[in-house]
Design a protein that fits this description.
The complex is a heterodimer. Chain A is 33% helix and 27% strand. Chain A has one domain (2-223): P-loop containing nucleotide triphosphate hydrolases (Rossmann fold), CATH 3.40.50. Chain A is of the alpha/beta class. Chain B is of the alpha+beta class. Chain B contains 10 helices and 4 strands. In chain B, helix 1 packs across helix 9 (226-269). Classes of the chains: A alpha/beta, B alpha+beta. The A-B interface holds A 49, 51-52, 72, 75-79, 83, 85, 89-91, 102-103, 105-111, 150 and B 3, 7-8, 10-11, 214-215, 217-226, 228, 312-313. Adenosine-5'-triphosphate binds at residues 11, 13, 15, 17, 35, 37-43, 195 of chain A.
């Protein structure tokens, strides 16, 4: 589903955020991406969502080399990738319902379909009662869950989450993780960036560790260099 | 397929009215922008309509032009009457008025005040005059009218007893060239003001794009195409154009109504049956269509220029 081969990212200004990254994730796999602050976790997710492009090497998602996707085709690539952002990225002048509906509106779905899918998605994150509320009236955890509902509403094959439990208490964090587990069980590939070591060490999933822009550890690879 | 089309149209309609709703949220700034557009468009439109009215007036004046036939001094009154009968039979001639040599002298004495001096003259120096009123069809338009009038003058010049056939077209020609200058001025002014409208709409949309920068970033992040993002801004431009056009229409109609009273009084003093035309259906269509087009073009330019700059990082 995701394959990085010798992928590097150098930001304008010459900073190397990622260097020679190699790993592969199969469809339906769930993995954590961890590492110190500034290690390059967000950058790696941005390469997958084509928010940034690799400066060297290849990133292949769903069999497609991302370097070959033109600027005009980027939106269609992003529609297949559900992304949950470190800073929620919600529209504060629209209701929870409208926020979650946005990906469906963009895809041009009919009114009826939108209503059904949005409610199913909000139900999954336990926010059905808040559909008429504005994001500003919600707690940080609830806003995060609105972001999750929006990311999964059009059932993408790949789900990326950047610090989804960043400001949640341990109880709520586990709940969110169980939502991700449900998705991976139905075949969605899930990659979660997190530095919540305690939480992810208690879960039986693959862990990719970044250190100073390099992949320093991959729990799926038995032999360590 | 049909279903997909319906959905597509429905989406467009929703965005169409959504953009109107967004504008109505701040009615004051929306009215300000529309008023600027309206004033800019009212000016050339009003001038254009005044020009059109001037053409009708000058057409009337032209066909009302008189031709004076100065007869040879040897012509007797009976010979003159023969000529008059002949002239009256001509279809191009509407009316004929005879001024005999005596009448001409009497009128001259009365008007000039040289009465006593003229008494000293042994002979009447003035010729008899036939004043001819051409009847030229109104359908031909101003230019062909003046051509026909000139032709008639040539014909009359060739008649027996006629010394000089005279038509003073000079001032009408001057009027035409003045009107031509004004027409060109209006075209140039229209061009400049259309450019101003384009810039006003472009700038307003640019500000709207900047205000909604976060929203645009989010929509791009979750897979919104440029076209999807562009749509509400284009419709906003459409609404500005429409409201600007309506304001222009209102301004033109009310100013011309104010002017029409005095103008009609003036033309009536020239015995012209002129009634001022405010604005016809075609001009209304042109005004509204043009302003909507300018609104769309202005927002298109702004969107093309600024949407690309906004990318998620
Ligand atoms: N647009 C950018 N231009 C230049 N440098 C950048 C840019 N974005 C990120 N960086 C740099 O790249 C490095 C990696 O950033 P990144 O956001 O991927 O880290 P991270 O692992 O997600 O950190 P955190 O845990 O704090 O979110 C950082 O040192 C950052 O300063
Ligand atoms: Mg980060």
């Amino acid at each position: 589903m995701i394959r990085f081969s010798h992928a590097s990212k150098r930001y304008p200004g010459g900073f190397d955020a990622l260097q020679d990254i190699n790993f592969h994730m199969s469809p339906g796999e769930m993995a954590f991406l961890t590492g110190h602050s500034g290690a390059g976790k967000s950058t790696l997710l941005k390469l997958i969502a084509l928010i940034e492009r690799a400066s060297r090497g290849q990133v292949i998602v769903n069999g497609q080399n991302l370097a070959k996707i033109s600027r005009r085709k980027i939106p269609f690539h992003r529609r297949n990738v559900g992304m949950i952002f470190q800073d929620h990225q919600l529209l504060f002048d629209r209701t929870v319902f409208d926020n979650v509906a946005l990906p469906l509106v963009i895809s041009g779905l009919s009114h009826n379909e939108i209503g059904k899918k949005v409610r199913a998605s909000l139900d999954m994150v336990g926010l059905l009662s808040k559909e008429r509320a504005y994001p500003i009236t919600l707690s940080g955890g609830e806003q995060q869950r609105v972001g999750i509902a929006r990311a999964v509403v059009n059932k993408p094959a790949l789900l990326l989450a950047d610090e989804p439990t960043g400001n949640l208490d341990p109880e709520l964090s586990r709940e969110i993780m169980s939502i991700f587990e449900q998705f991976s069980q139905v075949g969605v590939t899930v990659l979660i960036a997190s530095h919540d070591i305690d939480l992810i060490n208690h879960l039986p999933y693959r862990i990719l560790t970044l250190k100073n822009a390099r992949l320093s550890h991959d729990s799926a690879v038995v032999a360590q260099p | 397929m049909i279903n997909w089309m319906q959905t597509y149209l429905l989406r467009h309609l929703q965005v169409f009215f959504y953009s109107l709703g967004q504008l109505m949220r701040s009615p004051f700034s929306m009215l300000m922008t529309s008023a600027v557009i309206g004033i800019a468009l009212a000016l050339p439109t009003g001038l254009h309509i005044i020009l059109k009215n001037m053409q009708t007036i000058s057409g009337d004046i032209d066909s009302a032009a008189q031709i004076s036939l100065f007869l040879k001094k040897s012509t007797s009154d009976t010979q003159a009457q023969q000529l008059i009968t002949q002239l009256k039979a001509m279809p191009q001639i509407n009316n004929v008025q005879y001024v005999s040599r005596q009448q001409a002298l009497a009128e001259f004495k009365r008007l000039s005040g040289f009465g006593d001096a003229l008494k000293a003259l042994e002979k009447n120096p003035l010729p008899a005059v036939i004043v001819v009123q051409p009847s030229i069809s109104q359908a031909g338009g101003a230019i062909s009218n003046s051509r026909a009038t000139e032709l008639l003058v040539e014909q009359l010049q060739a008649k027996p007893y006629v010394d000089i056939a005279q038509l003073d077209m000079q001032w009408i020609k001057r009027l035409y060239s003045i009107m031509d200058i004004i027409r060109r001025g209006v075209i140039i002014l229209s061009g400049l003001l259309a450019l101003a409208v384009l810039l006003v709409v472009g700038n307003t949309i640019r500000l709207a794009i900047q205000n909604r920068r976060d929203e645009i970033v989010i929509i791009k992040l979750i897979g919104g195409t440029d076209r999807f993002i562009r749509r509400p801004f284009l419709y906003t431009g459409f609404w500005y154009g429409l409201f600007g056009g309506l304001i222009a229409l209102f301004l033109v109609i009310s100013s011309l109504l104010l002017l029409s009273g005095p103008i009609e009084a003036l033309t009536q003093s020239y015995e012209s049956e002129f009634s001022m035309q405010i604005i016809d259906f075609n001009s209304t269509l042109w005004l509204l269509g043009g302003s909507i087009l300018l609104g769309l073009a202005g927002s298109w330019l702004a969107v093309e220029r600024h949407l690309r700059e906004i990318e998620p990082t």
